[in-house]
Amino acid sequence: MPVNPLQSWLTPFKATAAGQSLCALENLPEIRHDAQLQINSNAVKPGDVFLALAGVTGHGNRYIRQAIAAGAALVLTDVLAVGDEALAPQSQIIVWPDLPSVLPELVSRFYHDAVKSMNLVAITGTNGKSSTAIFINQLSELLDAPSAVIGTLGYGHYQNLTPLQNTTPHLVDLHRIFSKLHAEGRHLAAMEVSSHALVQQRVAGLKFETAIFTNLSRDHLDYHGTMEAYGDAKALLFVENQSRTAVINVSDAFGKKLAQISQLPVLAYGRLSDCHGFSRFLAYDELESDGHGFSCKLHTDAGQFNLHIPLLAEFNVQNVLAAMGAMVQLGYSLPAVVEAVRLLKSVPGRMEIWHFPGDVSVVVDYAHTPDALQQSLIALRQQCRGRVWCVFGCGGDRDKGKRPLMGQIAELYADHVIITADNPRTEAVLDICNDIAAGMKTGANCQIEPDRESAIKLALIEAHAHDMILVAGKGHETYQILGSAVRDYDERKFIDALLAEMS
User: Fold this and answer.
1) Parallel/antiparallel/unpaired status of strands 147-151 and 188-192
2) Which of 70, 86, 87, 201 could cross-link to 44 by cystine, CB 3.0-4.6 Å?
3) Alpha-carbon distances, residue 444 vs 393, 394, 434, 441 (angstroms)
């Protein structure tokens, strides 16, 4: 008689389900070897296992009948919905009150503990997570270590990413991804860990070899409420049961405090003046731009190096140092890492540059927070020999408080500003634009063009030789949310088409 696969991942738990020992449950269905765990009933395929769990907006037990209709071979839940008590006797449904507490171990077992053979690097912070993850991916590949990223841009190798709905997927989806990456021979994963994910315990049970903190600035206050709560959420990653070591940006005020109180072994990174007092550090000074990137002096606890970073923006210098710190914490040779940095490439939608006829440059960046917008504009100012343009908007149905702040920053750091749509969602575009403009002192250098494509074209028409145009907010995204509709909109492809048309 064939062994029920459930015995390898379910019955070892010494717990009870509906009054019975899990080890004693009979008549359990066979689970196919290609079955998947699903938390979304719409994703269930015949033979899958549906986990009906509590979510942010409700409980998955409302969708048990839908999952069974879709062909679920087994359903696990901690509680049945009111009125569904009649479902309990069905052999394919297990009501397991302890399910939430054992979920991390259960899911890992189901996917043959693939995660335990992987080195995981977690990156958290307001800005720079995606870039840092991709730089780790690039550095590890250059050092002959197959790796992957998981984050805002998707998962997999950075040049061939599979899209994700959330920056940090649910724990169940994460383990499915780990299993796929392991099967591909990728034993290192650099993943973005959002503040939402930490609060909602999407990474519960995972142990990160090292955790990176990039920076903290205003974002997601519609969810967290206050900057203090937002910072506390980020700090959840830097505890002993979650991570083994830390790489922390001490040029960030919150980061310096975090590094000083952390119980983890810390490698500090940032400007040289900010790294004093730390025993292990990667620090830079003597920063010089050559028009194609930066050269600087790298100071470390192991000596000094001349470092060339072929990327725009000083914040990318810090992102690269974060990635270097992760590689060092993983045991790679610092001199080898320094050499590999010379070969790094820009991240799609992150300070990505196009050169137009007439010596006009367009830079696309994902900057969608006040701090990120400021840093991007400062970066262009460092490189620009003409005027700096800024084309941007703010998302609708999100933190309204940052809109005037971003207007203020755009007016201060750009010579010309065109306010336009981002993802307006259910708000009127003009209302959002006016909220942004309200933060400006005079608005003398500002125009409003609600249509985003028209706004970009307008900047290109009015730009002069040596001008640089920052198009901020959308970055890598391939959609725009208008009302309840999602339309195809790939800013990078749009600019490609404009360049082809004007060349």
Assistant:
1) parallel
2) 70
3) 18, 20, 14, 9
For the chain, what is the mean pLDDT?
92
463 is in which domain, residue-wise?
Answer: 352-502
Determine the Cα–Cα distance for residues 279 and 276; give it in Å rounded to an integer.
Answer: 8
Pair of tokens at residue 413: 């750091």
- Per-residue tokens: 131: 């870039």
Residues 6+ apart with CB under 8 A from 241: 207
Domain final residue pick, 282, 309, 341: 341
pTM for the whole thing? 0.83
Contacts (Cβ under 8 Å, ≥6 apart) of 318: 128, 214, 215, 249, 251, 269, 270
Segment 102-138, tens digit of pLDDT = 999 999 999 999 999 999 999 999 889 999 999 999 9
Let me know whether 65 and 97 are in one domain: yes
DSSP state of 34: T
Contact predicate 67/60, CB 8 Å: no
- Provide the pairing of β-strand 266-271 with 294-300: unpaired
Can you say how many angstroms the Cα of residue 415 is from the centroid of all Cα atoms in its chain?
31
- The half-sphere exposure of 103 on its side-chain side, counting CA atoms within 13 A, is 25
φ and ψ at residue 396, rounded to 5 degrees = -80, 160
4-34 confidence digits (pLDDT tens) = 567 678 877 776 666 666 666 666 778 888 9
Identify the domain boundary among 51, 72, 102.
102
Tokens of 56: 């942010």
